[in-house]
């Protein structure tokens, strides 16, 4: 029997309970996979607490994983038993085995370990669309990326540097600052002891940055807007500190005719060609060694509650995996 983390009530990390589950044969268009590794992301916390609404209770959390195809349903044309695959954005990842629609899967190149694939699909494809599609980062770009030592932050810092940008980050401890500086950032601001708006203005000689990437939310708004140059872009793609409350859109004009967006990976990979292009760009940049993926924490699947507790306490850095 397969094992999975089941959430039967919303709440803290203690609601994550391991259970035995029966995985039926894959339905038409589905693939069954034996998972080798599962990514842990802050979006999993949002669903566990109810900040984001799950389709129903109970449910198996998680959006990201990698493994081996063990069976395919009728009509499957993209995959065969034995294929190495990974995915991001498909609900139900916290399980040793699972069924998944073939359209949500990507083949993993043979030279990329499955644990690396599980660690990078959601975070890496997020970095891909943020830096290449939401805003086209290039040599003339000056950007600010909050949570620079986090999973997305470490990938984004390296990728942005490879694109030639000037990369400024924020982090919350000397250890995390050092880590960010090792991953592409030119400047890292300690948000616990420094005024990051003032430091950004100092670094940019008063001009501000072209774009702010903000996954923190409540704690960094509206200060993030004050880091932007006129007509700059605020990209709010998460809210690890809590959701940003409703605001008067007029504040964007008052602070310099600013732009704001709240993008999601799903929107940027909603078609098969978009998904494949995003994933392949990630594979290419990792294989070129311009971006390295750091798996800094691993937990047994049974210890998912501890993984969540450490994530929320900001004890983690880089990528966290669950191993079935």
Global outline: globular
Radius of gyration: 20 Å
CATH class of the largest domain: Alpha Beta
| SS field, number of helical segments | 9
Determine the N-to-C terminus distance: 13 Å
Briefly note the structural class of the backbone.
alpha/beta
SS elements, strand count: 15
> In percent, how helical is the residue content?
25-40%
Oligomeric state as shown: single chain
CATH topology of the largest domain: Quinone Oxidoreductase, Chain A, domain 1
| Secondary-structure element series | EEEHEEEEHEHEHEHEEHEHHEHE
Query: pLDDT average, as an integer?
Result: 95
Major sheet: size, sense and barrel closure? 7 strands, mixed
Uncertain ranges: none
Question: How much of the polypeptide forms β-strand, as a percent range?
Answer: 25-35%
- The CATH superfamily of the largest domain is known as Medium-chain alcohol dehydrogenases, catalytic domain
The domain count comes to 2
GO molecular function, one term: quinone reductase (NADPH) activity
Keywords: NADP, Oxidoreductase
InterPro entries: ADH-like_C (IPR013149), ADH-like_N (IPR013154), ER (IPR020843), GroES-like_sf (IPR011032), NAD(P)-bd_dom_sf (IPR036291), QOR-like (IPR047618)
Domain Enoyl reductase (ER): 11-322
């Amino acid at each position: 029997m397969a094992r999975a983390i089941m959430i039967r009530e919303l709440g803290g990390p203690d609601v994550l309970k391991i259970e035995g589950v029966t995985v039926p044969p894959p339905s038409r268009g589905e693939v069954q996979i034996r998972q080798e590794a599962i990514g842990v992301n802050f979006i999993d916390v949002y669903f566990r607490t109810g900040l984001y609404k799950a389709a129903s209770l109970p449910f198996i959390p998680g959006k990201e994983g990698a493994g081996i195809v063990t069976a395919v349903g009728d009509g499957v044309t993209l995959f065969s038993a034995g294929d190495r695959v990974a995915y991001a954005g498909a609900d139900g990842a916290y399980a040793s085995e699972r069924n998944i629609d073939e359209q949500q899967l990507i083949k993993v190149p043979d030279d990329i370990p499955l644990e690396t694939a599980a660690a990078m699909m959601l975070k890496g494809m997020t970095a891909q669309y943020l830096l290449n599609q939401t805003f086209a980062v290039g040599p003339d770009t000056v950007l600010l990326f909050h949570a620079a030592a986090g999973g997305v932050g470490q990938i984004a810092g390296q990728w942005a540097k490879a694109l030639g940008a000037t990369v400024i980050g924020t982090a919350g401890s000397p250890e995390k600052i050092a880590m960010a500086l090792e991953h592409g950032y030119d400047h890292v601001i300690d948000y616990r002891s420094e005024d990051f708006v003032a430091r950004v203005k100092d670094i940019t000689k008063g001009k501000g940055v072209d774009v702010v990437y903000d996954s923190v939310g409540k704690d960094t708004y509206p200060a993030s807007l004050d880091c932007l140059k006129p007509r700059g872009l605020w990209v709010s793609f998460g809210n690890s500190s809590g959701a940003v409350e409703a605001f008067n859109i007029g504040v964007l004009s008052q602070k310099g005719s600013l732009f704001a967006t709240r993008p999601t990976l799903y929107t940027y990979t909603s078609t098969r060609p978009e998904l494949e292009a995003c994933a392949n760009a990630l594979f290419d940049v990792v294989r070129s060694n311009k971006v390295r993926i750091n798996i800094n924490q691993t937990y047994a699947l049974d210890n998912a509650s501890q993984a969540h507790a450490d994530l929320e306490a900001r004890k983690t850095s880089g990528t966290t995996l669950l191993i079935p």
